[in-house]
Automatic annotation (TrEMBL):
This is GNAT family N-acetyltransferase. It comes from Agrococcus sediminis. PROSITE patterns: GNAT (PS51186). It comes from the Bacteria. Coiled coil: none annotated. InterPro entries: Acyl_CoA_acyltransferase, GNAT_dom, N-acetyltransferase.
Amino acid sequence: MRVEPIAPAEAMRTLRDALPLRTERLVLRTLRPDDLDAVRAYRNAPGQRRWTYNRDQTEAELMAWTAGGAPVYLRDGDAAQLGIELDGRLVGDLMLRITSLAGRQFELGWMIAADAQRKGIATEAARAALQLAWAMGAHRVIADLDEENVASRIVAERLGMAVEARLVENEVNPATGELGTALILAVRRDAA
């Protein structure tokens, strides 16, 4: 079966037309400069970086993260970082990355502030982002998780994702200094 690549202009137009994206309780929108303090608080909170395989973000990185502007999808790896609002308060963010324009594949990732976890926020936001990925032309969407991140695995499975790969001790986690094992979960549009 021949597959046409995702057209970057069409993907960006679809995303821009969808934002801000409203769910039953949430608003997904681009991050902006006035989000800096909230993003710093939940992204650099003790224990949060454990699941992102990154060190704490510097002030300059956080400023770039929250600079605002329209998301750009021109090449593989380009991503939109969307803020997740609950009752007007930023409680997390969600990444929507194109991993392959030619293969029509996206990746989803999410981070929720500790005080907002276990309330279905990640599932609700990720479900909306998955629908947005389908609208942008995705054929397959993945989540790349640390095997010990049980909460995010539950979210991915609620989206219909299944484990496709287990990469044993494939990367050193800067937050812990230990080797971590990754799970790749995925769902195809025709299976969703």
